[in-house]
Amino acid sequence: MRKTSAVTVLESLASGVRLDMYRLLIRKGVEGMVAGDIAAALDLPPTNLSFHLKAMTQAGLLTVEQEGRFQRYRANLALMQDLIAYLTEECCAGHPEQCAIPRRAKGTVSRTPSTARTA
Amino acid sequence: MRKTSAVTVLESLASGVRLDMYRLLIRKGVEGMVAGDIAAALDLPPTNLSFHLKAMTQAGLLTVEQEGRFQRYRANLALMQDLIAYLTEECCAGHPEQCAIPRRAKGTVSRTPSTARTA
DNA sequence: TTAATAGTTCAACGATTGTTGGAATATTAA
DNA sequence: TTAATATTCCAACAATCGTTGAACTATTAA
After folding, report:
1. How far is the first Cα of chain B from the last one, in angstroms, to the nearest whole number?
2. How many CB atoms neighbour CB A85 within 10 A?
3. Neighbours of A73 (CB within 10 A)
4. Residues of A in Cβ contact (< 8 Å) with B78
């Protein structure tokens, strides 16, 4: 992950509203949620919801898929894993015995339901 | 971790400068770095550096310890772990088989060099 | 004591962000 | 076709954020 991407992802999580949106969607997994249901769950006016959904989708944190007149949003789990790796990269470099952050084996790549952008 | 704390931590990482600062410090582990060396490494004017160090320290992401006329900063690894747990909490709730995010065993707590606030 | 070094605080400014209502677009139902 | 529903786009405004220079405090060296 590049720095600019990491900043964009972090920005798009750094607000109470967007954090709620992301956590709501990550719970739903592959099912995801349509925009209207997210609005209802979090009690947000549609304009505002759309603003945040767009920001998060552009950051890659969410994916969208059209379903008739609904838009279904899903959390992008792979990107979250990349972010976590970026944040903890080379933690305690050269002194793994001091380090409390769990390390992933090198080359470990996990399969994800869907990483592709739908938009 | 509470939502307000998570937002504060994410805000304090959501900028190129602060992300660089954090990643620099997490590499140093328990050694940490004094403010002047951080400024030199990232080529930042002291006023600006101090502004960001303060924000990150108040968010709990960094700890400070005075050493004579120097201030030594260290990354708070425990808080990063809490944040990661918060972000991935209840991922794919009820459908672990769909989920690509690695789960931590319940009750897993890792020892960290220092979690206490020094200031 | 005086001077130098390390770092923080303050005030100001420009830039960016979040929220809102209203208008626009797209899809489905009547 | 027309009307209703779902969602996005646009413009405006207030609020917040990041950067800077100048002034300040604390510690150490001369």
Report:
1. 21
2. 12
3. 24
4. 100
What residues of B are in contact with residue A10 (Cβ under 8 Å)? 10, 13-14, 19
DSSP string, chain A: --HHHHHHHHHHHSSHHHHHHHHHHHHHGGG-EEHHHHHHHHT--HHHHHHHHHHHHHHTSEEEEEETTEEEEEE-HHHHHHHHHHHHTTTTTT-GGG--SPPPPTT-----S--S---
B45: amino acid identity, one letter: P
pLDDT in tens, A46-65: 999 999 999 999 999 999 99
Amino acid at A2: R
Half-sphere exposure of A80 (CA within 13 A, CB side): 28
DSSP B38-89: HHHHHT--HHHHHHHHHHHHHHTSEEEEEETTEEEEEE-HHHHHHHHHHHHT
Tokens representing residue B9 in the block: 């931590």
Q: What is the pTM assigned to this prediction?
A: 0.87
Binary contact (A7, B14; C-beta < 8 A): yes
C21 C1' to B7 CA distance, Å: 28
The 10s digit of each residue's pLDDT in A54-106 is 999 999 999 999 999 999 999 999 999 999 999 999 899 989 888 888 776 55
